[in-house]
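Progress against Task 2.4 (sequence-to-structure conversion) is shown through the following example record, which the project officer requested during the mid-term review.
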Amino acid sequence: MKQLRASAASTRSHTRYRVVLAAGLSLWSLAATLLPALGSTVDDVVVAEMKTHGIKGVSVAIIENGEIRKANGYGFTDRSGTTPVTTNTLFQAGSVSKPVAALGALRLVEAGKLSLDEDVNQSLKQWQVPQNEFTKDEKVTLRRILSHSAGLTVHGFPGYEAESPLPTLRQVLDGSKPANTAAIRVDIVPGSASRYSGGGYTVMQQMMIDVTAKAFPELMRETVLAPLQMNASTYEQPLPADRATRAATGYDPNGKEVKGKWHIYPEMAAAGLWTTPSDLARFAISIQKALAGQSNPVISQSMTRQMLTVQKGNKGLGLGLDGNGSKLRFFHGGRDQGFDALLMAYAESGQGVVIMINANDNSGAGKRIVDAVSKEYHWPEAL
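Structure tokens generated for the chain above:
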């Protein structure tokens, strides 16, 4: 396990990243305006950003007209420079794990196994959200968890080094050793405020396990990953050996390799997805198609509309939202130790982009890459 000081630094970096995302995608155009152009094409910008900021590997998937128009890997999986990043290279998605997990939860809602609006303790069997003065009149619900308005604590998770003891899910929920985060509890009235909570998604993970009696990775494979042909993706933690050979190595903001190459996240719904930009693009395309009333094997058009409707702040059900009408965008960013990810797509026009890197980059490189995509592909407006 990392020393307390390193863990705190990682958490602060993680929090800063979340604040930038929460500020809205409109800030991206400002950043791009203030910084000089790095190239005339997406490829030019990616290569220049990697060189300037010491990023080892980048993978990008671009969506046009509801299909993957371009997918490409850049650089190498680690500093040795022996294994190139390809479209099949696995990256940790960080909090982009959440919208994919949210889709699984909404599938269970439509199957009648979960409710969006009843007290989650009606579904929880192995563990319960402790009641207190904040839950006297208002309850924690799945809708509020998905929209980060359930009043639950614990912003994010630093993960665990490969050789460290791993907590059970219940130990994470209660903040019991060897868990390295606090207990997940309600400390403001549910529904009263929008406040980001990875802890809430961990409660959701327990709910999904309880109502299906299945391990979370198996459940997500059956309900979301396989139906959407996200065949490279998995919520398995630790990452199985046969998949580990295809995984990139993570690097912290100072360019130091993550000990053991990456951290392990028992908080799978919140931060545990291993995936590729192409697989996340398939997820985004499924949302676009479902909204348009086309075939979606996971959720209905009406549930997709709820997913893309603001519930609190700028949050839908599992996704951040920005703009409206033909310019409505859904998005989510992610950061695990040594990995950053970003997904953004237009809900109606069939456009979008996913970027994954094996670094914690605080320079704004991802934002500038998105802006380059927006300009090259003539999207409705720059980000």
